[in-house]
Amino acid sequence: MIDFKLPSLGADMDEGTLLEWRIKPGDTVRRGQVIAVVDTAKAAVDVECWQDGEVFELLIEPGAKVPVGTPIASLLQAGESADSARRQVPPKSPVEQAAPAPSIPSEAVAPASRPRVSPAARKRAGELGLDLAALTGSGPHGVVTLEDVEAAGRAPAPATDRGPSDRQAAMRQAIAAAMSRSKREIPHYYLSETIALGPAMAWLQARNARSTPEERLLPSVLLLKAVALALREYPQLNGFWREDAFQPAADVHLGVAIALRQGGLIAPALHAVASRPLEQLMGELADLVQRARSGSLRSSELSDASLTVTQLGDQGVDAVFGVIYPPQVALVGFGRIAERPWVEAGQLCVMPCVVASLAADHRVSDGHYGARFLGEVRRLLQSPDSL
Amino acid sequence: MDRQQLRQQVLAELQHIAPELEAEALRGDRPLRDEVDLDSMDWLRFLGALHRRLGVNIPEADYHKLDSLDALIAYLEPRLVASSP
């Protein structure tokens, strides 16, 4: 039998509140299947299962808030039966099993809180939409009683009913915690390079002139693809710093910083960018932006990114120098694509340009390596046909 | 479809992309992408929605003519007549 633990939801989300289960004991689950919905400071997240099995037991109830890494369900593997699993494993409280994920500093992790609740109280709390974890029990051994739930139900703001300003404050706090950790722990270095986009923009313009809006590509897609292809050649920028060592990522999953309309940002991953055709990438990017803004991201998208790309060009700035999103070891920024005076073959001309920047972790690479990476991005963008 | 109905339809699609938008507060003569805070992805989605709803395919080369809501309506109106049966 295996414990299914609440997966990592990104460095700035170290706990989640279970909103609902999508499975029940006895169900067969497949790898990649959404088994629960968890609320975080930034968004509701669909939690995906990472392996095949049969659901044995659900260990937490909707409303419980638990740190990342807490076992939330137990699964039977192929060949195991519920009876044999019951004999093998004495019942344990999930509180005792709670283990922080390796990427989260231990001080950030509070003990798992599975409140002790009478069944009647649990039922009533469900009806009232109350967060049981937020209630103080007045019964024996701190058990939350029906009376406690009724009292909390009469109180003005139940804990799970977060207003927009509450969520914003929580998001700001989560971003601040992750970025403070980044600036405290990661020795950043920064480089920038102005890249001519003449061929790329001409190629894009010609291609888009033949398309309906639904089929058009944004320049972002070319930039993302070029970064992903360049990372294949420069693996020291693509991966994670964990337990005092660099772990290169197996593939290039690019985190894309997406501004949320109500404020704040989230950087979910586009998967396997280097091997995707541009059209597919565009579709996936559009889908990702839409889902990030409507709050329906998948857990793998929040934990997989091996490097983040931030583009603030739409806001009109020339360049952006980002803060690395731990445990990643580099971040690429793009400013606005603008026409600038440019010298080519001794001639002054007008050229669409973009400033690409790199923030990278000195524990893994240095400026010379980073500069060659940016050079590769530039080189790739000169032949858009090959992207 | 008269101009008022066209405006309603365009606003409905804008609100779909920017749910926080208050139609009454939108100034028709100001730069649309600033008024509504549309990034290039939002803009493309918006044009895609107009294409599906109104049957008008706005080419990239015409983007510069669409700098305000009023300009967009003025651009769409004659093309709407042309494309309806």
Count of the separate structural domains of chain B: 1
**Top-tier CATH class of chain B:** Mainly Alpha
Helix content of chain B: 55-70%
Give the quaternary arrangement of the chains.
heterodimer
Provide the low-confidence segments of chain B as ranges.
none
What is the number of helices of chain B? 4
Instruction: Report Rg of chain B.
Output: 12 Å
pLDDT averaged over residues of chain A: 85
The CATH architecture term of chain B is Orthogonal Bundle
Question: CATH superfamily of the largest domain in chain A, called what?
Answer: Chloramphenicol acetyltransferase-like domain
Element order of chain B: H for helix, E for strand: HHHH
The coarse silhouette of chain A is elongated
Structural class of chain A: alpha+beta
List SSEs of chain A in N-to-C order: EEEEEEEEHHHHHEHHEEEEEEHEHEEEEH
Can you walk me through this structure?
- The complex is a heterodimer of chains A (387) and B (85).
- Chain A is of the alpha+beta class.
- Chain A folds into 3 domains: 2-108, Beta Barrel (OB fold (Dihydrolipoamide Acetyltransferase, E2P)), CATH 2.40.50; 119-154, E3-binding domain (Dihydrolipoamide Transferase, Irregular); 186-386, Chloramphenicol Acetyltransferase (2-Layer Sandwich), CATH 3.30.559.
- Chain A is built from 10 helices and 20 strands.
- In chain A, helix 7 (219-233) packs across helix 10.
- In chain A, 42% of the residues are buried.
- Mean pLDDT of chain A is 85; it is low at 94-114 and 156-161.
- Chain B has 85 residues and is mainly α.
- Chain B has a single domain (3-83), classed as Non-ribosomal Peptide Synthetase Peptidyl Carrier Protein, Chain A.
- In chain B, 58% of the residues lie in helices and 0% in strands.
- At the A-B interface, helix 6 and helix 8 of A face helix 3 of B.
